Amino acid sequence: MSNPLVLDAPPGQPLIEYHREFDFPVHSVFAAHTDPDLYARWNSSGPTPPRFDLFEPRSGGAYRWVQAGDDGVEYAMRGVFHTVRQDEFLLQTFEFEGYPDVVTLEYSTFTGLPGGRSRLTGRSLYPSVEFRDEFLSNGMGDVMSDGYDQLDELLGSVPAGS
Amino acid sequence: MSNPLVLDAPPGQPLIEYHREFDFPVHSVFAAHTDPDLYARWNSSGPTPPRFDLFEPRSGGAYRWVQAGDDGVEYAMRGVFHTVRQDEFLLQTFEFEGYPDVVTLEYSTFTGLPGGRSRLTGRSLYPSVEFRDEFLSNGMGDVMSDGYDQLDELLGSVPAGS
Fold first, then answer.
1. Which of A92, A134, B101, B153 has its CA 20 to 30 A from that of A108?
2. Interface test with B, best of A95, A107, A125, A128 (most B CBs within 10 A)
3. For A88-107, what is each residue's pLDDT tens digit?
4. What fold characterizes domain A6-157?
């Protein structure tokens, strides 16, 4: 059984808030967000893993990755890391280039829990309530939930301590 | 007579929207936002201009500047440029390091107007309505308005075409 994604989209506010627990240590969950090889393995949505043009997980760094869909068409995501605090906190922008200038600001807080478990608490701000609702109605919640389930599988397959 | 800053803070929304016209061309107003020497001259709030530790006005670049107040105490601002489109558009994060992890996402659109004039349209998203309201009650609107008045003075003193 995987842990559920708990997602809240407050009415009239251009944001979502969510949390998700993991049966893995905070270090492992954080690494899966900042190591491009690991990140690619739980964020792939096509027949091949995403390709990273740039991935600089440090405060002031930037990233861009390209995913090919089942039809071979490529789409790209890019952003900047405003803050990276090892095993604690990420603050980054996110843009799907198919929606130019529609940029999300994403807060991710990583917390250790007893028993080698951890919690991810997220808050994403959208340019407007309308865009947030559009992304939600396009299945964003399911994509996030499926991604975290894949992250569970990934962490379960990685030798402890690696 | 300077042009007024028109600022709207919609109730219950964690954002401000504003616009300000300038009797100067869009190229000049944009340059004043992306040239650190010009930027320092209309954003100084102390006895000496701010000092730039880093200023990379390009998509994926970062910046940090330090201002000394009248009492000599230094405070720092930092962020990342998500998008820089020459003479058109800036999207950047902004953090006053005295409020750690309270980060604004700032959209700035530059539009040319007839007669060598221009308009800046801005939209800033805050982590919460509470922080937005706190910054507003601490005089953020006056600081912005004074800054744009200083920008007018600066542009009026710079030879045309420079």
1. A134
2. A125
3. 999 999 999 999 999 999 99
4. Alpha-D-Glucose-1,6-Bisphosphate; Chain A, domain 4 (3.30.530)
